[in-house]
Amino acid sequence: MRAVQITEFGGPEVVAVREVPEPRPGAGQILIDVARCGVNFADTLLRENAYIAAAALPLVPGGEVVGRTADGRRLAAMIENGGYAEKAVIPEDRAFPVPEEIDDVAAVALLAQGLTAWWLINHTGHVRPGESVVVHAAAGGVGSLAVQLAKMSGAGRVIATAGTPEKRELALSLGADAAVDPAAEDLTAALCEANNGEHVDVVLEMTGGRVTDQSIAALAPFGRLAFYGMASLVEPEKVSPRALQRRSATVSGFWLMNAFARPETLRKAYAELTAQVAAGELRVIHGGDYPMSEVRRVHEDLRGRRTTGKLVLDPSR
User: Fold this and answer.
1) Domain final position from 257, 276, 297
2) Which of 20, 121, 177, 241, by CA, is between 20 and 30 Å from 268?
3) What domain range is 138 assigned to?
4) Per the domain annotation, does 94 fall within a domain?
């Protein structure tokens, strides 16, 4: 079968479409014909062996897929790897049924991005009605969904950040009350100004470096910052426990892989998200449906911050 295989770590040039053996399902696994596989920023880190979890070569990347079984069941699933391929093996206990009214891009977007946004709003960030919420990278896969879910949860004010005027306009169209350029010299002041001069209650952050540091400084008493990625690859400054104590603030981390220890919660979340999309209450931003043969361009566009919404590969092309 055709698949994208990495045989050495490096830049976009190391991802290539090759003929590889078809995977064979074992106990508790299901083989599916992949309709679409998701592309995530984490894939570009995995390609460089810079992700949270170390990788072994050779490797077929891709952690999220939607497709059909031989008997016609339509399933979506998160997998460790192997998604950039015509066929993939998925664990039965991590397979989510997909309603027919949900398109393939949405079905994939509601996996890593949708489940992460849902968990950040409902668990890690504990967003309460009336609270202010900052969503960094608000035009991206997680951010675009988190803006909407924050509003649906009753947030009093949602403040989006995005790097271009077009991306900030997109965030506003999704329901954000204000949009801020994260490159502002004093991001702390910009976030507070966007919150009518007040410090903020919740920050969903995946950039790292100064964005994390200045976002922590923008937290109100009892504020929470949920850290779920580091797209800049720059570590934030050391967080001072005494500084957090003075404001009773919380800085926490989230990685979706840990949530799979609670499969019932994730099944509930995925069913809730697909129902909201089907009802027209939640909008998935289609960021690009690429042929698998153009996988290098996808990685280049993603790392170059030239994308919005959800990116997918079509293994049939």
Assistant:
1) 257
2) 177
3) 114-257
4) yes
Would you say residue 43 lies in a domain?
Answer: yes
Q: Indicate whether 206 and 235 sit together in one domain.
A: yes
Query: 202-235, pLDDT tens digit by residue?
Result: 999 999 999 999 999 999 999 999 999 888 878 8
Question: Would residue 266 count as lying in a domain?
Answer: no
Is 38 inside a domain boundary? yes
How far, in Å, CA of 254 to CA of 227, rounded?
6
- Domain total for the chain? 2
Task: Give the model's confidence band at 166: pLDDT under 50 very low, under 70 low, under 90 confident, else very high.
Answer: very high
- pTM for the whole thing? 0.89
